[in-house]
Amino acid sequence: MKKIAVIGSINMDMTVQTQRHPKVGETVAGHHLSYIPGGKGANQAVAAARLGGDVTMFGCVGDDIFSGRLIDNLAKNNVDTRHIRSVSKTSCGIAMITVAQKDNTIIVIAGANQYVSREYISQEKENILQADIILLQNEIPFETVAYAADMAWKHGKTVIYNPAPFLPVPQNFMNKITYVTPNEHEAALLYGEDQSIEQMLEKSKGKAIITLGDQGAAAWINARSVFIPPRPANVTDTTGAGDTFNGALACGLSQGQTLEEALRFANTAASLSTEKMGAQTGMPDRAAVARWMPAHAPKI
């Protein structure tokens, strides 16, 4: 089994449930508040580890009341936390999430995540390069993401880049990515809003894996658009579904699955994750995904 390194954010998610999302200037009543470990990087690490991946997390926490809990939670989920750096006089990253009407809105405060720097990656280079698959996102400084991608590319690693939150990136960066995993909105920003899914996939030269929410996912494989059908879900909370997909994709590839198999595996895991509250708390284990796999073969 290949090793996975996740370089990214570690947050505490403050999740409030309410009947509907407030309009600008409006106050609505919430009926439940939860503190749930999150952050796109940590979420993807937990998703991959819970599914059986060999995962090491690289990132930063602050020195506030959340730091110990965040690291302990990763360790409890079998993620190697030895290389997480603690930054003094700094708060941990925070995500403020409102859940209503089977969807969510999120505001992220970077906190210690802004200290995931080039210098930190350089110092951890030997440890990072022990992994075969490098998983990246945009909740740490992009300068760091680009530096890590370049380092991984030079050493022949598989680089999975989740372009969220979205920001424009140079083409020379994209040339070093093995797979990019935008949702449909992010794909339109990357490849053009006038493009169909099939045109986006072809334009990406096989790099793009587009997640389509309750429509499943799509990729360009063997010169064809392959659409992975969704698993029917009784949706409770979509928070973390994309992170589950990315972690599961990395896990599947690390365990020798073909790209089609890994996509089916990831799509099923993401669907299952929407049936529980919270990002990490909703992530399934391998047994749960395996029970659904036979019925969800790829459609071309």
- Look at the structure and give the CATH class: Alpha Beta
Q: What sort of overall outline do the alpha carbons produce when their principal axes are compared?
A: globular
Q: What's the number of structural domains?
A: 1
Mean pLDDT: 92
At the fourth level of CATH, the homologous superfamily is Ribokinase
User: Biggest sheet, strands in spatial order?
Assistant: 6-4-1-10-11-12
CATH architecture: 3-Layer(aba) Sandwich
Unreliable spans: none
User: In total, how many beta strands?
Assistant: 15
Q: Would you write up a description of this structure?
A:
Substrate binds at residues 11-13, 39-43, 139, 243. The chain has helices spanning 40-50, 67-76, 118-123, 125-128, 142-154, 171-174, 184-191, 197-203, 241-254, 259-273, 286-292; strands spanning 3-7, 11-18, 30-38, 54-58, 60-61, 79-80, 85-86, 93-100, 103-109, 133-136, 158-161, 179-180, 209-211, 217-221, 224-228. It has a single domain (3-295), classed as 3-Layer(aba) Sandwich (UDP-N-acetylmuramoyl-L-alanine:D-glutamate ligase). The radius of gyration is 18 Å and the shape is globular. The longest helix is centred in the C-terminal third of the chain and has 15 residues, at 259-273. Strands 6-4-1-10-11-12 form a six-stranded parallel beta sheet, sandwiched between helices. The protein has a four-stranded mixed beta sheet with strand order 3-2-8-9. A three-stranded antiparallel beta sheet has the order 13-14-15. Strand 11, helix 6 (171-174) and strand 12 form a beta-alpha-beta unit. It is built from eleven helices and 15 strands. The protein is of the alpha/beta class and 300 residues long.
